Amino acid sequence: MSSKTNDVYGLAVSKIMLGNTYGYRGEGNVAIEHCQKSIEFCEKGQIRNALGIAWGGLGFGHYLRGELKTAVAQIEKVLKLQMETGRKSFLSIFYDWLSFIHIDSGKLPDAEMNCQKALELSSKNNGKYYEGFSRILCGRILVKSDISKGNEAEAHIRRGMEILNELKIRPFFTMGYLFLGELFVAVGQREKALKNLENAQNDFEKMGMDFWVARTLAVYSALYEREGDQFRARENLTKAIGIFRECGADGWVEKYEKELAAL
To answer: Helices 210-227 and 250-262 sit at what angle, rounded to 10 degrees?
Structure first.
């Protein structure tokens, strides 16, 4: 309907929604395509209140492709745009995405700073959805910063999952399983790691979230490498790389090919 009536605002919003949907599924290239179109419509119609959200989706799409520096630059642009327009309702999720990217870049102080901002805003604005995701990220950061705080980190992740489960936000809830699995690998609790990774893989497969299936397989690989099982470590990482390649996630392919070569 929006295209038939030349409703620029409707076109911009519909493209944002499509971009976010594909982004949550892990399809970075498609998410980028829709968000770029949304930006074009926003600029054409001077729709500044939606422009920041479109740039945020674009940044997350680049994260999914493994282009982390580009993703950070675009999401930082979002924060500036949202501040300029006075629209602060979505700031929590953008701080969360920045935190998420900084975790995977190994920049834990920056990850923690952005995660705390997201938590503060979600509490102030009663944003339970954002709080749930922020708590999962807090758990990831905590255990990566200090392995001795595994129990506290687990409590953060489980609290975040509890909130997201109540809200029926299954994609992010399932990420909690993935990051619990990652945590239990780090602290050497094999059975708990396997249980959570199995839950994550099953749910991601049911939802068609192939990118996240690949991320789960990469954690399986880390578990088997830790145990000295080089065959299964290589097997799972090879499967993960194949899926990343199908998803167009070239940056993740490059990252994990280096890890595979080192096994």
So the answer is: 10
Q: Looking at the structure, do residues 139 and 93 belong to the same domain, yes or no? A: yes
pTM: predicted TM-score of the whole model, two decimal places:
0.92
- Structural domains in the chain (count): 3
Asked whether residue 1 falls in the same domain as residue 80, the answer is yes
Indicate the DSSP class of residue 149: G
> In the listed set 84, 110, 126, which residue is the last one of a domain according to the structure?
84
* Domain span holding position 117: 88-168
Tens-digit pLDDT profile for residues 223-258: 999 999 999 999 999 999 999 999 999 999 999 999
**Closest of 55, 61, 57 to residue 42, by C-alpha:** 55
List Cβ neighbours of 187 (8 Å cut-off, separation of 6 or more). Answer: 143, 147, 150
Together in a domain, 183 and 258: yes
**Who contacts 157 (Cβ-Cβ below 8 Å, separation ≥6)?**
135, 136, 139, 140, 176, 179, 180, 183
Other CB atoms closer than 10 Å to residue 113's CB: what's the count?
16
Separation between Cα atoms, residue 216 and residue 222, nearest integer Å: 10
